Amino acid sequence: MRTYDFAPLYRASVGFDQIADMMDRVLSDNVPTSSYPPYNIEKTAEDAYRISIAVAGFSADDLGIEVKENALVVTARKSDAKDEKSYLHRGIATRAFERRFQLADHVRVNGASHEDGMLHIDLVREVPEALKPRRIEIARGGQPIEADVVDAKAVN
Q1: pLDDT tens for residues 134-155?
Q2: Handedness of CA 19, 24, 27, 28 (dihedral sign)
Q3: pLDDT at residue 32, as a whole number
Q4: Residue 106, phi then psi, degrees to nearest 5
Q5: What is the pTM of this model?
Q6: What DSSP string runs through 69-121?
Q7: What's the pLDDT score for residue 64?
Q8: Which H helix or E strand runs over 27?
């Protein structure tokens, strides 16, 4: 396994140590990742996303969605009902799973729906007004300028 030195990243940036730590964690993780259940992540708008997970065989009561510490955790546990069916071939997996998605700052879950064997989780990024880019006017000729801040979108 290769190891990467993130020292140049630390020298050239301030406040991005979380990204380097996350990359280090992903690259050093020797645990094989499961591909079950399959999922899609799509961008539905400029600041909106949708995670679609194939959950055939699970009802909405068998599924759980939780957000904690910037991680979206989707779990599924099949109810303990006795299955008295006799299968000749069983290709639809209904084994329990836990799937984690790391969420960026200011991304929140907007809602979830379960239909046609798919679990859809809608996400939206809401950057607070205080963190949006702002343009600061520069005083010319020693004249003081008012504390008027212009929105960056209005300038473009």
Answers
A1: 888 888 876 666 655 555 555 5
A2: negative
A3: 57
A4: 70, 15
A5: 0.65
A6: TTEEEEEE-----------S---S----EEEEEEPPTTEEEEEEEEETTEEEE
A7: 95
A8: helix 17-28
Helix (H) or strand (E) holding 10: helix 7-12
27 residue type, one letter = L
Dihedral sign from CA coordinates of 100, 103, 108, 111: negative
Residues of the chain with pLDDT under 50: none
Is there a contact between 126 and 106 (Cβ–Cβ < 8 Å)?
A: yes
Our measurement of the distance from residue 52's CA atom to the centroid of its chain's CA atoms, rounded to an integer in Å, reads 12
Phi, then psi, of 26 in degrees rounded to 5 = -70, -45
Half-sphere exposure for 127 (CA within 13 Å, toward CB): 9
Q: State in Å, rounded, how far the first CA of the chain is from the last one.
A: 46
What confidence tens digit (pLDDT) does each residue in 50-67 have? Answer: 999 999 889 999 999 999
* 71 close to 51: Cβ distance less than 8 angstroms: no
Burial label, 107 (beta-carbon count in 10 A; 0-12, 13-18, 19+): buried
Spatial CA neighbour of 99 closest among 146, 58, 140? 58
